[in-house]
Write the structure tokens for this entry.
Amino acid sequence: MLLLGIDTSTKICTCSIYDSEAGVIAETSLSVKKNHSNIVMPIVDNLFKISDLNIKDIDKIAVAIGPGSFTGVRIALGIAKGLAMALNKGLVAVNELDILEAMASDNENEIIPLIDARKERVYYKYQGKCQDDYLINLLSSLDKNKKYVFVGDGAINYADILKENLGENAIIVPRYNSFPRASVLCELSLNREDANIYTVEPEYISKSRAEKNF
């Protein structure tokens, strides 16, 4: 099975062509300062060029549906839906926190993925629940005598806060392995059911700034 993965939930725009038997065929990840909308399709087009494949060869589209950037999540989901409809292919939706958690899955300690939501707020997954809160509130609920593995840009950006509160019990995944990869998204998608293209929605977790102000 050949999958195309698209993830623009964070500042990293990552796309991949992934084979269920051979693994990664092609993958590109870029740090995007502004809008992902002008970057995604050129990356996708280039992946097919360098892999000598055609987009019609794809069996399924895998997409990250947040949490993260409200605009970024909408871009990836919109493109993935459009491709799935045009190609008449299945669409698999995966939570961004699940992708980050998988990035650190080789660790024996409890993993807590963190996405920076700014001003010391984070999107995180703890004990199977995805939430949006201030990092200090999450830390206050943790067992200070237990080791935890933190992964994601929230872990990198707030490393000092993690260390101040948990000391050596805060294990921070290195920067080079703390950003999402579309190949991981694709691999997770292999064991998940197809989403309903017409009803699948972003998993924002929190309300947008406009909704909060309203």
About this structure: The two ends are 45 Å apart (CA to CA). The chain is about 35% helix and 30% strand.
